Fold Xanthine dehydrogenase family protein molybdopterin-binding subunit.
Amino acid sequence: MPEPIELKLEHRMDLPDQEDLLDRMAQGVISTPMDRPEGPLKVSGTASYADEDHPPGTAYGWFVRANIAKGWVTGLNTKELQAMPGVLAVIRDDRMIRNPAQGGDAKSPHQGPAEIFYKGQPIALVVAETFEQARDAGLAARADYKDSSHKAVILPAQAKYEEPRSKQFSQGNLDRAMKKAAFSVDVEYDTPSMSHAAMEPHAAVAWWEDGRLTLRGSYQMLNSNAQELADALGVNVRKVRILSRYVGGGFGSKLGIGHEGVGAAIAAQKLGRPVAIALHRRQVFEATHRRSETRQRVRLCCDADGHLTGIGHEAWVSNLPGEDFSEPVTQATSFTWAGENREIGHYIGRLNLTGAGSMRAPGEAVGVPVTDAAMDELAEAAGIDPVEFRLRNIPETDPSTGKPFSSNRLADCIRIGAERFGWSERPRVPGSRREGEWLIGFGMSAIIRVNMLGDSTARVTLRPDGTALVETDMTDIGTGSYSVLTQIAAEMLGLPPERVTTVLGDSDLPPSIGSGGSRGAASSGSSVMLAARALRGKLAERMGCDEEELTLKDGTVIAGNRQRELTEVLAGDSLQGTGTIRKGKAEDGHRQSSWGAEFCEVAVSSITGEVHVRRLSGVFAAGRILNAKTARSQCMGGMIFGIGQALHEEVFHDARDGSFMNRDLAEYHIPVNLDVPQMDIELLMDDRDPFANPMQAKGIGELALCGTAGAIVNAIANATGHRFRSFPVTLDKVL
Ligand code: MOS
């Protein structure tokens, strides 16, 4: 094969996109509900996940974990463990037992006592010939501690709270607005500690060849994960390759390199053979991130016409001492609703409890349901229909900054959703509709999730045979990356999708932002689009026309009245385009968000207190929809997540030491088929956001979750006449 002809296109998003290039394309594959190209591999069990297909000679690791909440490990019965059958090594090394979110820094292998921050923290790794032998020895481990405390200090009153300055916001005088208001509410809600509960447990298999590490794991952001791993190991990032071809769910729990990744890498180096570590489900619960519990106070007030005059939102969350992250509960509160007086407070309590990190839609996932439930309470107090009340309070511009919205389709989503759902049939008087033992109620919520862009690069190669190869280190965590990136390249290059192969999940490929923060598809997609655009430029040159005059369709190249086969134009050459999208100033001047509205009907048993979600319907606007099927699936997944948040999901911590009392999928309840109704989902296919990126697409991965639980508790209030302000609304609370 001859050397490819290399082309490059880099674009910084400084100005809004005026071209709407994808709309000019002729292939007609973008936005269609195309099936996942990797779907057959997944349903036939041949897609290989992190803990499958171990290389020959693989040894197995099992983490020994602390059973105190705070203190120091001074010793371990290492000799005893080393004598157990099959045991190859007992490794104590600070680099793998630190909480990965604290970031690794290269230290020499740990010699002295190691500090414990939470119960369940890994303190050593036992490696053996088989998984069973490693587990057997791991469970026989006994550690010595000093200065140990079993106190996790989980009672909010006892915690020490920090007030990060950047997260406090004040505008006008809320206290005065509350006093003067015709109607007001001042309410407290709480949401529990939660677990991501991804189907695929965290797992990694590592091997070293010629001083270079290959790690097959389950991660979301390979470019930064490779850097984190290199930092933890104290090696140059070029010595590290991470493969995550398929990821069985992440939801944020796989955003950073985990104990299993660092542990497998260190053990494989030490033993000179591949080492695999798969976390047990309990270890996933206790030793990977959770979502912080929250306590939230919401104050809302309005005039006699139902126009908001003030909004207060204060949130108390927790994390380990020294952690930067804290659940950004109030993220959407500054811009969603009108009101000139605004008070936002954010407080972090420091607890010796499994670290809190990003979980699907950090912030809005727990903040929007609460502010929206409070909006419902105020609508009721003011005697205004909840739909009408919300429509009256959609601001013209971001009320906290005065900046315009890049696009705001919230009102459309609410109106269309109300119509589709049959909102006019809502019981006017709470607790008034009954079917036998069942109390029936309707509720709705606005759906909000901020939109972001991340620097991303992709390579697209047009091969002499007229097929294309798309390559980037982007991951597909079940979201549809393989589908949308294939479609974007196919659309831009005028190829049927079968002629495009997309390769992802390899940190050796051009770096993308990865999967996180609902920005993966828009960011990596834009880089693929730019790479393909560079190729179009070359094809236009060969046709002797401008790129704008070029039409590519079904493997033919058309310029004016001339039409040639793509393979002819390529004339035996490979064209390789590299596209890079960078964040720029376009987002500075505008508030960017994806929008939606959800509507819900519940039936609440007056005998058992159980809540059935009978209908759940959502309308969403997220700019250009790249694949109608995978986008819809994302929304469906978000709404199901929201059902769990409203009715089922809750980690119970032992108040003495922070222990997880429920730490598997039998006791940490997530919605099952019977909990989930047929869902009605509408996407506003005509939506575009020119400020977002060259595709004019926005994030949809986390969007649908951001409010669902509000719609459900609002429906429960309509059914029962009672407000439940503690999530999840389990039957013991209802009775
Ligand atoms: Mo998401 S919590 O950014 O995976």
Residues 243 and 506 are 5 Å apart (CA to CA). Residues 59-65+70-149+197-287 form a domain with the Aldehyde Oxidoreductase; domain 4 fold (CATH 3.30.365.10). The longest helix spans residues 520-543.
